[in-house]
Each structure stands twice: as structure tokens, then as C-alpha cells.
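Regression test attached.
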Amino acid sequence: MIILPVGAGFFTLQIISFQIDVYQGKIKEPLSFLDYLVYILFFPKVISGPLLKADFFEQLHKKREFDPLKTEKGFIMMLFGYVQKIIMADCIVRFVDPIFTYYQVLNPLLLIAGAMAYAFYIYFDFSGYSNIAIGAAMVMGFDIPKNFSAPYFSGSVKEFWRRWHISLSTWLKEYVYIPLGGNRCGKVKKYSNYFITFVISGLWHGFGLQYIAWGMLHGLYQIAEDMFPVLKKQDSLMLRVLNTIRTFIFVDLAWIFFRSATLTEGLLFIKSIFTHWNISLKGFGIGFFGFDTVQLVLCMILGIGFFIIDYCEYKEIDVISKIIILPKKIVWGMSLLLILLIFLVMFRTMGLSASSFIYSQF
Amino acid sequence: MKKMFLIQAEKFIGLVVLMLLVVIILSEIPLTKRAVARLTNTTDYIENASMTEMQPFIEKVSEKDEKTKLIIGDSVCSRLFLPFEELNPDYCIAGTNRGLGAPGQYMMMKLFLDSHPNATEVNLVLTTNSMITGYENLYGYQYSTQPFLENDCLDMLDEETRRDMRKAYGFFATNKTMVRIVDGSPILKKAYLNLLNRYNAIYVLPAVPDVVEKYIMKMKEECDRKGIAFHLASAPISDTEGRKELEETIAESYRETDLQTYFPNYYDNLFYYSPEHFPDGIHPITDIETLKVMVENIKCANNCMMDFRLSD
């Protein structure tokens, strides 16, 4: 077992990109060692990003004026982030964990539900962290890049990577894919560049073969989409919806490897989906998974809310900017309600082991 | 602009605090307590189990009656001796819980001696688990401070012990008003006990803590001073795998204390029984014949409770 400091993967990437940016002359202004340390260890993002770019130094040196709207927006983003983590992610994970632990004795419907739930768990967990980080930075007057933009509304895996962990995919594109030659040297080279980039992405997430499998699958998806453009077509609403569902299934299939402890476990999980139809669903109700009914209902209601917010995000409507210009009573009422719900869930789940942010391990 | 924002922010924070206060107050009021508890999943914290369990025993040892002998100890002691209570009118049997710790047992003894001037014998029957329990998170606060605080007994302990209790169970653990407030609200109680467990975790090590040595010695000194016989006896334990090795480790620590000088047979008289007699691994089964054997062994080995009857 290799023990690494928290966020090691993130600050390693920051250090690499800093070196390259200095070498390529993207960072022109004189920097002190303190500037460098702030860039690497800026506390809101140090554990799980978003990864900063060289333009952060401009913000660092610029005199920042107090902006009440920006501060308020920052707080609302943080609040949304806490709701995503404490209410949504921590509720979903209670369903996901037993399924990935006991998959060998469970009905395939539960396995499929568990795999789908994991997709939402990882989204709420990581997007929650990112919102807290972006919000905290915003309160201090910094703009750090957004990390998520309605990823599960993507009509293709390529689009998914423009919407999921945006700062990492941008980093990989700028510092791996393009230096490898990008799409400029013929199709074979382009496909191998896709593949290498995603395998590196997998390796960055962990040393296990399951992460490499996850990266390889995403590389193969991109190649397939490039070879068969019909997979990306979004000419009609029907096609758009079908491709969105197809993308979700593809991404979720890869998540199974990402969640599994080993590559073999991931493969066995998938095999179980196809071979366990003789196992009954009886006895696997809410009680079996230790679901908290109140939290489950809350999770469902708020899930609808987040679906709407993501849809607006997909339509390029900045929901939080719209919220903060609403009458104060509405903004305050909504914020108080969310804070009350967070406390309610915290009290309900107190004593249970809370899960840490999943990306803090990378 | 900044000032305006700060004023607004202060108002908002005030509202958040007010909202939480309202929830806490609602959880304190009997009419709304249960509803709030259900909503916050804290119904288990409404009933004060430690008070319900301890108060009758505190009253029992404090009651002025003709009893002259006391048996105190942990829950194993209780399981062993309580079934024979009716046969032994001279004995006050008040085995309670490991959570009391040695200071708790000391206070129980003091209460008995204060209300029974003719007392002749005190028997402290402890499992080795209790022998290594000083301050601990799981039951300590609930058993060793709260019930005694409610009965104004904590003054029986020295200031050093009370300070250590505050250190272990929070700064207000010895303050009656604060304890009542926390105890009155299931959400405050759940939060408090969980925070205590999380941020002030105390680990029970296989060694006799100073506080145990100190209070057993105090019990002996108090009895010696009043001419009362004091016995320390070990309760039976299950002969499970690895248990003897663990006991040997604890015994080594025990031998380094003053207890070894005054109670050299505590470990020599440790009786192991087949695990089948201990369904949960700790407490003996209620089969009366088995209990008779266990009690008889304690009596003979420690030369105590000689007139304690096990049958008509």
C-alpha cells in the first residue's frame, strides 16, 4: 500500500503545468515563492481541485474589490455544495456500498440500480466539493474555473468530458493530448493520442488495473464516436435523448471499474448483471440497505431540484446568478431552509460514519 | 456597500442561530419533544437510560434500613447476586454497571455507609474489564457523572477527580444546570455524546488506571477507618480464545499497583468458565444452578460473604 499526502495527485498536476507554463513563457510576470505556494496550496482547491491555470497569478496580483453580489454568490454555491455532499451523496452512498460489496449474491436489477446510483453519488460528491471550493474562493474575491456543467446531459462521451471534471480534462488536453500531437497527424495517431491521454487519466486516478480499464474504456468510446459519427448526431430531439441515454450507459459502465476494488471485481460485477437473474429480489427492501426514509425522500425531492438546475446549466443559464438577484426574502428563506435540512440530515446521520470526499484520495 | 453587506450578513447569521435555537427549544418542550426527536432520528435519546437504571440503586443504597452488608460492582456482579436477594435480607445488593468506574462504586459505598451506621461488610465484585476502566466514552458520562450529579454526590470525590471528569466528559459535566439542559433535549444529547466520542475519544487499555487504584484504595481505607470488612473479588469470565493472555497483561499492570499489596488474590482467584455460560461473552446466563457455583467459588476463594445464602 502506498501512502500519499491528501490531494497529492492535484498538486502534482499543478506543479507540472506551472513548469510547462513557465517554460513556454505563458507566465510572464515576476513571481515570488509565496505566489507559487499560494498557487499550489490555495486552500479551497488543495484537496480535490479544480486545477488552477496560469491566469490565477493575475488575480493574485490584482487588487480585489469587495463585491457583495459575488460574495453572496460564493456563499450560495458553498451552500449548494454542502447540500450535494451531506444530503445527496451521503444518502446515495449508503445504497451503493452494500451493492458493490455483496454484488455476488444480488439480483441484476439491484446491480444496475447500484451502478446507476454510483454515477450520481460520484457526481454529487465531487461536484459538491467543487462548488464548495469555487464558492469559498469567490467569497475571497477569486474566480477559479468551474468543474462541472450538467455532465449527464451530454449527448456523447466527448461532450461528457467537456462537462465532467472540466479542469482535469482541460489539463489533459493542454499538457498531454496536444503535446502528443493532438488530431494533427492523421487518424491513427489521433486515436492513439486519445487512448494514451485517457490511460494516463486512469493512472492518475490510481495505480490499480481497474483505473486503467476505466481510462481505456473512455479512450475507446472517443475513438468509436470519432469513427461512427452517428453516435454523436443530435439532429432531432429523439436522437439527442437516445444519445444522452447511450452516453450515460457507456459512462456508467466505466464507473463500475472505477468503483470496484480490483479489475477482476469490476469484471465479476458486470458478469453478475448478466448471470444472476435466478436470484430473487425479495428481502432487499429499504430496510436491507439501512436507508433513512426521511433522507431518502429529501434526496428525491432535492434530486428533482438539482435535475432542473443541471438542465438550466445545460441550457447555459447560470441559476445561482439568477437566484441572488431574487428578492432578499426568497433568497434568505431558501438558504435558511437548506441550512435547516443540512442540520436535520446531520442529526439524523450522526454516529454513522460519514464518507469523505471521494476525490480527496486521488 | 461593504458595511451594508456585513449588517445583512449579521442579520442572516442571527436568523440561522435563532432557527437552531427554536429547534433546540422545541426539542426540550415535552409537547414537541417526541416530534422533533422523530424528525431528527433521536428518539433513542429521549429516555434517560442511565438515570432510569441508576436512580433505583442510588435510592436502594441510601435507604435507611437494617441491612449491614453491601455488594457492589458491575453488571456481572448484578447478574450473579441479585437472583439471591430475597434469601439474604442482611445484604444490600447494588451491582450496577461498568460505566460507573471506581469513583462511582466509591460513591455508592459512601451512600450506603452514611445511611447504615451498623454496616459490617462491603464487597466489591468487579470483572477485569471494570478493573481497567477509568474514564471512558461509551457509558462514563451517563453512568459515572450524571446520576450522581443529580443526587448531589459528586462532592464526595476529590477536586482532582472532578477535574479529570470535566476533562474526559466536557467542561460542564459537573454542572447540574448544563447537564439538565443537554439531557432534556434528545438532539443536544445525541450531538453531545457523539461529539464526545469523536473528539474526546478515550481508549481503554489493558492496564489498571490510576483512578481505579486510587478509589479502590479509598474504599478500603474508609472501611478500615470504620472497622468494616472490605473485600475485592473478581467476577467470573468466559474462557474464550486469547482471554488468558489478555488477563496476564492486565495482571502484570495490576501487580505494579498498591492493590497487589492489599488484594494479592484478585487475579489468583479469577475463575474461568466455559463460553457456553456467557451468551454475550461477558454476562453469565441466568441458570440458577450455574450462578450458585459461580457465587460459591467467589465466596470460598475470597473468604467473604460467608453467610450469603444460595438456597433456603
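Expected vs. actual: identical. The first helix of chain A runs from residue 8 to 23.
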